[in-house]
Amino acid sequence: MRRALALARRARTHPNPMVGAVLVKEGRVIGEGWHQGVGTPHAETVALAQAGEAAHGATLYVTLEPCSHAVNRDGTPRTPCATRCLDARVARVVVAMTDPDDRVSGRGIARLRSAGVSVSVGLKEETARALNAAYIKQRTTGLPYIVHKAAMTLDGKIAAPGGDSRWITGDRARSWAHRHLRNRADALLVGVGTVLADDPSLTTRLVRGNGHDPLRVIIDRSLKTPPSARIAAAGTLFVAAEGIAPSERIAALRETGAEVVELPPRADGYIEMRAVALLLAERGLYAVLLEGGGALAAAFWEADLIDKAFFFIAPKIIGGREAKSPVEGDGLSRSMADAVMLEDLTVRRFGHDIALEGKVRRKPCLPGL
């Protein structure tokens, strides 16, 4: 199963889950594969094809429950992976986790068992769930998995009082963030304040072919971004407030190749962040990296949309009442007892800088709420 999980990590499969499979017979690997992307064979299919007739009587290790539906979401017919396992006469299937997709959700396992195949579920489930956290979040809630990434000084500032923010952390920390955070995200989200202050490119800055640039999503309710900005181009989605963004600015940005979507604003004229999250999920953008300033971050935290925080901390002191912090707004809690807590913490070091990663601890819902 460790090998299957390692295989699963090899490809970007958005919006499909990352899946790896390994076929074993008489203590020897006879086939293995992973799902490489939309429209390509599933991991089980690749492994079974590689094994051929030898798959008869073998054990299949797979990181996600074999699918059981015979029709794709676009209506085209398909052969379910559970059927392929039965046709290959696999004797045993070891599954890391069940598929939360409502078209599967235990049906693949049930079909295998009803045909006499021995099925075990739960081996390295925690690792498998972490691998597909974004997919699971979308399938179970309809929302994307959002990671808030910020770089700050030791006293919690993301910029000097004058606004300068380049660079808080060193090259090693920034390079790691580009490769392991931006490169794995479906969408990179910032606000117009970041665009106007830094004119960023918002790319992974990796050698062509070795990196993936996520869709750049800019929250800009009145479209203040000038068409000359570096991010005003194809591969960028501007989210504006309907009835507030002037039509001439919409047209100017669209001429650059960028896309502009208008969402209905709240009574105060601001965009509802939950509506932004739903928009991204509906487009198959399940893994979202939030890199905006403190005000935008606060809007997502206040809407309870953040799943994980990744804060890089440099051993620098800025001070100053006017210096910005990673999360601003009106505050998430009035007391320390009710502060948002992170769990499953990981600490990394990059030269003089450190990074703290943690999942947001969700408060249990009370019955009836």
Question: What features would you describe in this structure?
Answer:
It contains eleven helices and 14 strands. With 369 residues, the protein is of the alpha/beta class. Strands 10-9-8-7-11-6-12-14-13 form a nine-stranded mixed β-sheet, with helices on both faces. A five-stranded mixed β-sheet has the order 2-1-3-4-5. Helix 9 (247-255) links the parallel strand 9 and strand 10 (259-263). The longest helix has 10 residues, at 171-180. The chain starts with a helix and ends in a 9-residue tail after the last strand. The model has no long low-confidence stretch (mean pLDDT 91).
Lay out the secondary structure:
Elements (H helix, E strand, L loop, with lengths): L1 H7 L11 E6 L2 E7 L8 H9 L7 E4 L18 H7 L4 E4 L11 H8 L3 E4 L3 H7 L1 H9 L3 E9 L17 H10 L6 E5 H7 L16 E5 L16 E6 L5 H9 L3 E5 L9 H10 L4 E4 L3 H9 L5 E7 L27 E9 L2 E8 L9
Largest sheet entry: 9 strands, mixed
Strand content: 15-25%
Strand order of the largest sheet: 10-9-8-7-11-6-12-14-13
By secondary-structure content and strand pairing, the structural class works out as alpha/beta
Q: Tell me, briefly, the overall form.
A: globular
Helical proportion, percent range: 10-25%
Strands, count: 14
Number of helices: 11
Radius of gyration: 23 Å
Structure characteristics:
369 residues; alpha/beta; 9-stranded mixed β-sheet; 5-stranded mixed β-sheet; 22% strand; globular
